[in-house]
Structure formats: C-alpha cells, structure tokens
Amino acid sequence: MKKLLAFLLVILTVAAVAQKKADAAKGPVTFDELLTEAGLEYTLPAGFKPLPVEYNDVLPYQYRVRSTDGTIEIRYTIFPLDRVEIDYDDPHSSAPEPDHLFTLLFPGIITAVSGWGHYKSKDYPPDEALRLFRADWAGVAVLKPIPEYSPNYHHALIVAIHRNGHADAYQIFLGNDLKHIGEVAERVEASLRFKK
Questions:
Q1: From the CB of residue 69, how many other CB atoms can be counted at a distance below 10 Å?
Q2: pLDDT digits 0-9 by tens, 132-187
Q3: Taking the model in full, what pTM does it have?
C-alpha cells in the first residue's frame, strides 16, 4: 500500500513538473487559452466573482472564484494532455498513457489536498459524466483539506473530469459547511465542461 501511495505522489509530482515545464516552454497562458487548448468551456457561475490566483505548493491552480457571500471558493486546475510529458523509468512496466493518467492523478490529488487524510470518492455513472460534462469519465471526492491548501475553509469537494485526447480538469469546492458545498456543487459543477 505504501508503494502505491508513493507512486501516486510521484505521478502527481511528475504531472505538476511537466505542467510547469510545458508552461515555461510554451510561455504563460491565460485561463481562457488553457480552456481552448483543453477543449473545455466555462461559464462563471451566478453569484460568484473571480479572485486573483495565489500560488499553492500543494496543488497549483489556474483560476479561482468565490461566492459573493464568501461561503464557497472554487479552484480550477486543468491539465491539457498535450502539455503532459511522462518521464517514467521502470524496467518492469510501461509508462501510463496520458489518457489513463486520470486513474492515477485523481487519487494523487485527493491524497495531496487531504494530506493523506480520510476521504470518500466515487465515479459518476458514465451516462451522467457525458450528460453533465461531456466527459468520458468523471469522479467526485469529499475530504478535509490540509491548512497548507486551504487555511480558511475546512471541507472540500473535488469534481474531476476527463475526456480522451483532451484534458483532465479538477474543480475544488471549498467551504466550512459540507452540506452547503454539496448543494452549490450540484448547482454549478457543469459550469466547466468539455465542448461538443
């Protein structure tokens, strides 16, 4: 089990480093440019306003918004697959394909944001992932984020979406009332989805 978790953290680190390298090589990009590159569309949810991005060592993100009443913050992290470079050197197995990274990245992100803490996760049924997000796969997790990721909010709900050949995208809903987070997430989660 320790080997698997260590591997997941390596994958998460590799993805973050690859993202930084790719960003540096291609130059800085705006959130809108990332959306276009990833084949995603985004609509600012009603009752939310954009906030400046603040670098976070636990899980970098490219965009964030907060509800006007301050109870919910949403951070968006997008990994366009053409930016992900896999540097994998294991003589006993082959490197994972970019289209299969979501099976490793999602648990790695959950582990990083929760600081190895307890969480609950599940996959969306395939038809619901397609209907809500136009995604080939989607998952959701509920956890308590570590203070290094979120010093002001004590609960998180992560919605992960993946489309083959395009991107992995994560919406991290943060707040202090888990029931309220769930209600808001259900209302606005489809504001980030893949284009037709």
A1: 7
A2: 999 999 999 999 999 999 999 999 999 999 999 999 999 999 999 999 999 999 99
A3: 0.85
DSSP β-bridge partners for residue 137? 162
- The closest alpha carbon to 80, from 33, 148, 118, belongs to 33
At CA 156, angle to CA 74 and CA 138, rounded to 5? Answer: 75
Are the C-beta atoms of residues 124 and 138 closer than 8 Å to each other? Answer: yes
Q: Which two tokens stand for residue 17?
A: 């480093």
Which one-letter DSSP state was computed for residue 196? -
What pLDDT, in 10s, does the model give residues 117-146?
Answer: 999 999 999 999 999 999 999 999 999 999
3-state secondary structure of 1: coil
Q: What is the CATH number of domain 2-194?
A: 3.40.1000.10
Domains of the chain, residue spans: 2-194
